[in-house]
């Protein structure tokens, strides 16, 4: 986000103001936080996804260490894509917040 805004010639003061305001939009806290809310939400999604992927790997009986080579990498990518597919009902809901 930062690089894209700098390239589009957004004034630095506006970027600082946006960052400051985003620190006040985190829904889990009634006070301001030290990191902008989108960064917190990205962390929560990644943390939750890790548990979903561990469950998928455990259910399949395979681990990613058994696959090797290009074909194995393609299978891992396809399996990862299937594992992180989001149900249409939850796409617009911040269930992780």
Attribute tags:
mainly alpha; 97 residues
Write the topology of this structure.
Layout: H1 2-7, H2 12-22, H3 37-60, H4 69-83
The total of helices stands at: 4
* Quaternary class: single chain
Helix and strand sequence? HHHH
Q: Which stretches of 5+ consecutive residues score pLDDT under 50?
A: 63-68
Total individual domains: 1
Give average pLDDT, whole number: 76
Rough shape? elongated
Separation, N- and C-terminal Cα atoms: 21 Å
What percentage of amino acids are in beta strands? under 5%
Largest sheet: none
Instruction: Tell me the number of strands.
Output: 0
Radius of gyration, in angstroms, nearest whole number? 19 Å
Helix content range: 55-70%
* Class inferred from helices and paired strands: mainly alpha
Report what the structure shows.
- It is a single chain.
- The chain has 4 helices and no strands.
- The chain has helices spanning 2-7, 12-22, 37-60, 69-83.
Task: Offer a concise description of the structure.
InterPro entries: Piwi, RNaseH-like_sf, RNaseH_sf. The chain has 97 residues and is an all-alpha fold.
């Amino acid at each position: 986000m930062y690089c894209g805004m700098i390239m589009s010639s957004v004034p630095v003061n506006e970027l600082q103001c946006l960052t400051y305001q985003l620190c006040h939009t985190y829904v889990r806290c009634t006070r301001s936080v030290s990191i902008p809310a989108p960064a917190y939400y990205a962390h929560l999604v990644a943390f939750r996804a890790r548990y979903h992927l561990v469950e998928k790997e455990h259910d399949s009986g395979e681990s990613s260490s058994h696959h090797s080579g290009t074909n194995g990498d393609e299978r891992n990518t396809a399996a990862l894509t299937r594992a992180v597919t989001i149900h249409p009902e939850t796409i617009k809901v911040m269930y992780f917040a």
